[in-house]
Amino acid sequence: MPPPLAKPPAPDSAAPEATTPGSVAAGSKDSDGGVLAAAYGATSADSGLVPLTLARRAPREDDVEIAIEFCGLCHSDVHAVRGEWGGQAYPLVPGHEIVGTVSRVGSAVTDFAPGDRVGVGCMVDSCRECESCLDGLEQYCENGMTGTYGAVDRRNGGSITQGGYSSSIVVDRRYVLRVPDSLDPAAVAPLLCAGITTFSPLRHFDVEEGDVVGVVGLGGLGHMAVKLAKAMGAKVVVFTTSESKVPAALELGADEVVLSRDEAAMEAANRTIDLIIDTVAAPHDLNPLFRTLRVDGALFQLGLPSEAMPPVNPRALVRRRIAYAGSLIGGIAETQEMLDFCAEHGVVADIEVVRAEQLNEAYDRMVAGDVKYRFVLDTGTLQAPAKEADA
Ligand code: NAP
Ligand code: ZN
Ligand code: ZN
Fold first, then answer.
1. Which of 46, 107, 217, 269 is 20 to 30 Å from the Cα of 170, by its Cα?
2. Rounded distance, CA 221 to CA 199, Å?
């Protein structure tokens, strides 16, 4: 279990030095014990990703400093880096599928020690006091959770958080996950976003043996939804726009594959599905998908296209008491539960490891749907940090 959420420290509390010895994350230490970290990020919406240097704070009493080994590339990183969701601050170092080893811990940290393999997902803080936070639903924090990158870090002087395409990161222990030793660390990285984002709605719907789960879009999230739903005992039907992915979907464990642009195939799938996990990153018509659901079925939309979607037909919903829902990642305790579930069932992502200089090409390939199924950055390929930080 992750450490319990506790009240935040008083805003003016001093930041004591880390006391537990351990190897320092890659990069040179400044006089306060902070580290200059190598990174790759964007300087504007059209800069692409370029080498950058980050100033990472010295671990404070509740902090865990992590030497990052791998970071998955999520489609959300592309949306954010390219300014597709608007309101983006630059420079921006993306990355919220982080796996590494603990290099230093703060004086109050007793549950993590240097050398532990750990992970960080999409959030690094939340208010810790509201009903959502106290319910373990920090992602729905009433005061706004702090995203791992591009978010105002209220407990750190309003600086902007910077993510995992970097050699190190410092995160409060309450938002750090334990990565089971039995799983390949590179292939675990995508579980920290793609895994938990699909696990959470599958659990919310209580998916079990006998249920039929439809997975729409076979990318990073989609392929995790297939693996997790299968591990929960469901029958899985993949809906894809890519004919070339049909054999691969079956290989992943899907029981059936439907080409979503084939009207006859969609008609044949009428009233066959209990739950749809829709992971498509672009606008698309949901109404044909609603027709594949049974009475009391549900469609969870996880994708966040930057442009408007075609309107939902209310008749499609009311005729079968269909629920149209959304879902955002998962809470910290649920993320740990997902990692432990994956260890128990031997589930990891199918990945292609890339070097730092391949990141821009990887983004283009992701947008073109040309990845099976998640790129993961090997942070060992980042160049050394510069003498001064860019952010
Ligand atoms: P991804 O790997 O690029 O997969 C998206 C899939 O959508 C593609 O593989 C493709 O599958 C399908 N697709 C169909 N038409 C497309 C088009 N015109 N452009 C792009 N994709 C198209 O993306 P991902 O990392 O899984 O992320 C999917 C979406 O979920 C993104 O919008 C991301 O921002 C969002 N997301 C949401 C959460 C959350 O908490 N709700 C968390 C993470 C990510 P087929 O080829 O099989 O049709
Ligand atoms: Zn993500
Ligand atoms: Zn809260």
1. 46
2. 10
Whether the Cβ atoms of residue 307 and residue 333 lie closer than 8 Å to each other: no
Contact 116, 180 (CB under 8 A): no
Please give the residue that has the higher pLDDT: either 21 or 228.
228
Distance 324 CA to ligand 2 centre (A): 21
Ligand 1 centre to CA of 36 (Å) is 33
The rounded Cα 327 to chain-centroid distance in angstroms is: 13
Query: Which ligand places an atom closest to the C-alpha of 198?
Result: 1
Length of the chain: 391
**Once rounded to an integer, what is the mean pLDDT over residues 39-68?**
98
Q: pLDDT (tens digit, 9 = 90+) per residue, 170-203?
A: 999 999 999 999 999 999 999 999 999 999 999 9
Reading the block at residue 201, the tokens are 């709605």
Mean local confidence (pLDDT), 324-346: 98
Cα separation of 104 and 135, whole Å? 29
Ligand index nearest the alpha carbon of residue 75 = 1
Question: Is 121's C-beta closer than 6 angstroms to any atom of ligand 1?
Answer: no
